[in-house]
Predict the structure.
Amino acid sequence: MKQMLTAIAAIVFIFSVVVLLAYALQDRLVYFPTRELEATPRALGLGYEDVRLTAEDGVRLHGWFIAAPVARATVLFFHGNGGNISHRLERVAIFRQLGLNAFLLDYRGYGRSGGRPSEEGTYRDARAAWNYLTETRGLAAAGIILYGESLGGAVATHLAAERTAGAVIVESSFTSILDLGAEVYPWLPVRWISRYDYPSAQNLARVDAPVLVIHSRQDEIIPFHHGQALYAAAHEPKAFLEIRGGHNDGPQAYGSQYVEGLDSFLRQALGPRPPGS
């Protein structure tokens, strides 16, 4: 009996240490920023503007604005939790193909942006980007598309619940980080110890704009049912685009239906494509 109690005590102690470590190291489980910019849109032969912003709490941010010759709209793109904007040049090429201006922002702690990432921090960064487009550049809200991939989907839906954009696109994202964490770590009390929420499904239910949800059945990091649940949470008008490939495969794996699906959604949400765009 004494040996059994000792073993149980040891298991409880080890489990407690693991839980404390998980609590203390959450930032490293959520954010994987890199500082070095490996390339710029010039690698695609595209001109761009280096943009410097200041978030409402004083953190300095960096992004790129890439103008299309004849733009049908402007996409405000929020990337996932790894890398930085220099790893999203494939997106820039697609946005140009679709006749869209593009504004890519690095969250605090990523690329050339200052500070350290946090949930509230990413929301502040998103608001700073929105203010830049609507106030500094004077763009109409109806002509702005909020587009988020993975973690960026949670950032985009939060902003979309606060501001009314022309459309919202959520790709390979989760219903909430709590839901995903509880699935990935079923043996941990994730809902008790998490300092993060990112409640995308709840935010989508408050969005008053056309919504496109994109997800792959082969996504090995964020299961397909998260995309289905996000779609269910959104109000009409809405659309679902099923793609193929793994979570980090990127647009090169999605196939032609990806660009065609985006274009179809944009036509429905924003109207006919202007000549020359």
In short: The chain has a mean pLDDT of 89. The longest helix spans residues 2-24. Residues 83 and 122 are 15 Å apart (CA to CA).
